[in-house]
């Protein structure tokens, strides 16, 4: 009987693994230590949607570096296919995928992270995105099917929302983008509520108050 692995959930420690990648062998926990990591899977090399997505990540290299974030791609392809694809895209478009791409030919990492969703495909990983914080905790997960590419602006927004929330101990409202007001945690006592009423917070109701970060 096949063993069923529980996929990681938000708040879990990221499952560790060692993998062959396009930049050499990597121990995930070492790669993650001290930086945020976005681990993302794609269904297959040499496919059109995947090429647009991987190029999108590559073009945001400076953004992710500025925000202490490393990238790691993954698909159930061989290291030779990965290398040939990276080279082909570079020769055609000038875009180089410098981040490591895991050659998950035995599907071990895909299974560990719940990237194999048999109702969608038995052999290809879906388009998953896992954002890990510098302590190695899973903080955000997205899953997209094979036929719909992800949204780079949303991935970047979500990363900044997590980092800003951690830094300022606040929550982010619908569609929050940097520069906009953030949500202040609701008061936990009647006294704190009375204090809040005297504050200059933008208050919709006692439990929904916003402030600027600058
Ligand atoms: C694509 O990247 O274009 C793709 C890959 C697998 C299935 C469907 C589309």
Give structural attributes:
alpha+beta, binds benzoic acid, Antioxidant, Horf6, Chain A, domain 2, 5-stranded mixed β-sheet, 3-stranded antiparallel β-sheet, single chain, 7 helices, elongated
User: Average pLDDT, to the nearest integer?
Assistant: 96
Major beta sheet, strand line-up = 5-4-3-6-7
Count of strand segments: 10
Which CATH architecture of the largest domain?
3-Layer(aba) Sandwich
Q: Label the structural class.
A: alpha+beta
Residues in helix, %: 25-40%
Multimeric organization? single chain
Question: Roughly what fraction of the amino acids lie in strands?
Answer: 15-25%
| Biggest sheet architecture | 5 strands, mixed
Query: What molecules are bound to this protein?
Result: benzoic acid
Low-confidence stretches: none
Q: Using the coordinates above, name the CATH class of the largest domain.
A: Alpha Beta
Number of domains: 2
Order of helices and strands: EEHEHHEHEHEEHEHEE
Family: Belongs to the peroxiredoxin family. AhpC/Prx1 subfamily.
Organism: Flavihumibacter fluminis
Function: Thiol-specific peroxidase that catalyzes the reduction of hydrogen peroxide and organic hydroperoxides to water and alcohols, respectively. Plays a role in cell protection against oxidative stress by detoxifying peroxides.
Enzyme class: oxidoreductase
């Amino acid at each position: 009987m096949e063993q069923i692995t529980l996929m990681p959930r938000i708040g879990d420690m990221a499952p560790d693994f060692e993998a062959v990648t396009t930049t050499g062998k990597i121990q995930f926990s070492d790669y993650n230590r001290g930086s945020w990591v976005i681990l993302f899977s794609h269904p297959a090399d040499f496919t059109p949607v995947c090429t647009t997505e991987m190029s999108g990540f590559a073009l945001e290299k400076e953004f992710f570096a500025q925000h202490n974030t490393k990238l790691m791609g993954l698909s159930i392809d061989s290291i030779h296919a990965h290398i040939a694809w990276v080279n082909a895209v570079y020769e055609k478009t000038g875009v180089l995928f410098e981040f490591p791409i895991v050659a998950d030919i035995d599907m071990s990492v895909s299974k560990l992270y719940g990237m194999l969703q048999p109702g969608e495909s038995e052999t290809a990983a879906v388009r998953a995105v896992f954002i890990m914080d510098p302590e190695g905790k899973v903080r955000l997960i997205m899953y997209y099917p094979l036929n719909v590419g992800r949204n780079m602006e949303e991935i970047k927004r979500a990363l900044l929302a997590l980092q800003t929330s951690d830094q300022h101990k606040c929550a982010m409202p619908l569609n929050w983008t940097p520069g906009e007001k953030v949500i202040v945690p609701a008061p936990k006592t009647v006294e704190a509520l009375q204090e809040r009423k005297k504050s200059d917070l933008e208050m919709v109701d006692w439990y929904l108050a916003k402030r600027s970060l600058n």
